[in-house]
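Data availability (excerpt). The following record was deposited with the supplementary files.
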Amino acid sequence: MPTYTAPTTRSSGFLVTAAVYNTDLVENIKFFKDAPTFDGAVTASTTLAVGTGLTYTTSVKSTTALATPGALSATQATAFASTVSGAAIMGHGTTNDVSLMNRAGTVVLGVGPNTTAVNMTGALTVTGATTLSNTLTVTGGITLASSFGLISTANQANQLLNIGGQLFFNGHRVNLIGPYAAVFGYAMGGETGAPVATTDRITFSTSVTAASTVSNVSQARQGLVGVSDGAVFGYAMGGNSASPVATTDRISFSTSVTAASTVSNLSQARQAAAGVSDGAVFGYAMGGYSTSGVATTDRITFSTSVTAASTVSNLSGIRGYATGVSDGAV
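Predicted structure:
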């Protein structure tokens, strides 16, 4: 491979030998023809033509923005700075006009030939908000990360959200997208002359009920209140075991196993509260009896299983044994 040699300044009358001629002129011309390496910046005022490949160690920069070039022919590509689009790449291909490849040379992202369609062969992870002005076609499926919190009127319009394993659109639950569809229901605790911890499980597909010892509550009691996030956990809250208690047990629907959950305990020992739930974010144990009737309401946050008093949710009057109903959405 030819190498570059800085020419020496010659004086008048210097005899140019073949060796000098070859070093100062021939070898340097070959260098610039075959594989030139430039120590400083190179500025091309019009077009820089490269026959094989261009290797650079720092960056290639355009100093002047250009108007969008005319249509390209097959096998042509161009990169340029646009006054409107910024850094721009154009190409002409049969499958894609422009492609982004990984290190193995596999196309990850492509712009379809002479279209605005974007083709993506792998998974797309989005960490921020995404706005679609046209149609999104997905062949493999969409996974929505869990995002616990209230759907307020400020952010629910035309939004599809996964809240605690439930699919919501415009603030209304539209489908269950938890780890499994509804399979079982549970009757937990109660009394048979005295409080018991027994739990029975019903299989919805067959309507058959059987005892489920792994689902038994941690403390024999009656008058419990049940709430559920509709996907992952259910809660048996409070009750009476010789006297009112604040104990809360949590059942994992995937395993049917129940265990005490102290962070979920009621703020006040009581029984016979009314249980309601939005099926995704919060559940409520409302009113009931302690040493006497109460209006107290506790709210459990399903994402953390933590229960706390919610005074704005208190009943309008003291009472127990009320029935809880819910529209199943926010």
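Summary of structural features: The mean pLDDT is 83.
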